[in-house]
Amino acid sequence: MDIQVLTTGYWPVYPLYPNLILPQYLLDPQNKFTDYYKTKYQGRRMTWQYALGHVVVRFKPNDASSGSKYELLVSLCQALVLLQFNDTNELTLQQLMSAVGLEDRGEMERVLLSLSLGKDGTRVLQKRDHDAERKKKIRMNVHNEDKFRVQSNFKSNTRRIRINNILMRETKTEREKTVKAVSRDRLYLIDAVLVRIMKARKTILHQQLIPQVMEQVKVPAQPADIKKRIESLIEREYFERDATDRNRYNYLA
Predict the structure, then answer these.
(1) CATH number of domain containing 210
(2) 3-state class of 146 per DSSP?
(3) Which of 137, 143, 136, 135 is nearest to 92 (CA)?
(4) Which of 140, 166, 233, 252 could be stapled to 114 by a disulfide with Cβ–Cβ 3.0 to 4.6 Å?
(5) Please, what is the end-to-end C-alpha distance for the chain in angstroms?
(6) Does residue 79 contact residue 102 with C-beta atoms inside 8 Å?
(7) Does the CA dihedral 56-62-65-66 come out positive or negative?
(8) Angle, in degrees to the nearest 10, between helices 223-235 and 206-217
(9) Is the pTM of this model over 0.85?
(10) Are residues 59 and 137 in the same domain?
(11) What is the pLDDT of residues 43-70, one digit of tens each?
C-alpha cells in the first residue's frame, strides 16, 4: 500500500465516505499508518480520503481460459464493488451499497455504470434491467431492482485496463453545491497563505501583505476578498492590528 499525506487548504474538498467497509488486508496497514502518524505528529488530525484511493484488481472472468487474466486499474470504490462478486453471483444496487458501506447513491450509480456501461473492453460487470422496456436501450441510470453480475465472457485486447468513473450530468442543485464548494476551498486557501506569510514575517504592512498573497495564492483573488479574510483571521485571533499603526498586522503565536 502506498500512502500520500495531503495538506488541507491546498487541495479541493472531496467526499469522505467515512463508512466504507474495507477488507482486513487493507484495514490493517491503514490502522498501522494511522497509529504511526499520530505518534509522530501529536495534535494533528488525519482524515482518510477514500475518494482519491486507487487499486489494482486482478480479474479472471468465470469462463476464461487459463491465460485470460487481467489487471484492472480502478478507484477504491470500484474495487470494493468488484470484490463483492468473489462470493456472490448477482447483487442489486441496494445490496452493494450495504455491503460496501457507500451511502451516497449517486456515487454508487456512477461506480456501477462505469463498470457495466463504460467503453468497450472495460465492461467487467453485466447490468440486468428489471424492466423489459428498459432492456431495449442502454439507460444511464440504475433502479433499485436492477441486478449486476460479472461479465463471464469478458474479453479485452490489453491485460492492464484502466476503468474511469463515469461523469454524470450535474443537476442545478449539484452545480450550486459545486460552486459553493469551490468558493469555500478558495477561502481556505487564502487563509492558509495569509497565516503562512504572517507566521514567517511576524509583522507586516497591509500594502506589503496583499501583493504577497496574490502572488502565492495561485487562484483569482481580489484585494477586497483578501481584506475580508484578514478581518476574519483577526476576529479568530490569528492576527491583530498594531496598536500604533492600523495598517500594520502582527501575528499572534
Answers:
(1) 1.10.10.10
(2) coil
(3) 143
(4) 166
(5) 38
(6) no
(7) positive
(8) 110
(9) no
(10) yes
(11) 888 889 998 899 999 998 876 555 678 9
